[in-house]
Amino acid sequence: MSEPAQTNSNVTEYTVSQISMALKRAVESAFARVRIRGEISGLKRAASGHIYLTLKDEKSVLDGVIWRGTAASLNFDPENGLETIAEGRITTYAARSRYQMVIDRLEPAGTGALLALLEERKKKLGQEGLFDQARKLPLPYLPSTIGVITSPTGAVFRDILHRLRDRFPRRVLLWPVLVQGKGAAEQIAAAIDGFNILKTKDVTYAADLLIVARGGG
User: Fold this and answer.
1) Where are the chain's structural domains?
2) CATH assignment of 16-111?
């Protein structure tokens, strides 16, 4: 890139590209790691798995992106209206004079925000009747076979096997699924349906009860 031109004026002359690249270097160097509190709005989940959102407060907004790999590792589902704390870096797009935050860590802003989210979920599920006593089934007193729906590579499955081996040795059937990120909910629901179907068709794979588990908070 050519150097800024020197003129008779005391003010250095830049081309548009020169000043854009200078700003890019300055901004990305100064804000290579930031922690920002803001409310989520305009959240969009792309088919690619990336999440696009805006962080805002009462005066300003900041565009943000969570790449697919990071989005899949989040331990909660971001929602519009939730106050969060985001960590990441500020990047710029010189060709359009725009900047955004690339978020590589996101968490609810304190226990208050998390509890509010949980209460909202509980209320929503309650309105759907999912907590009705009539829906609940009695647990078998001494199950002979336990079905586990979880990730086969996660520590939680090893913990389940360890506890059962020490306290209540039983036959265990694993149905491997994703436990977070895109497609996890569908896989978990399909696994529950699958175990229920097997119980009616093949006693070899009939589970007396199911454990749906994930670790990591």
Assistant:
1) 16-111, 142-212
2) 2.40.50.140
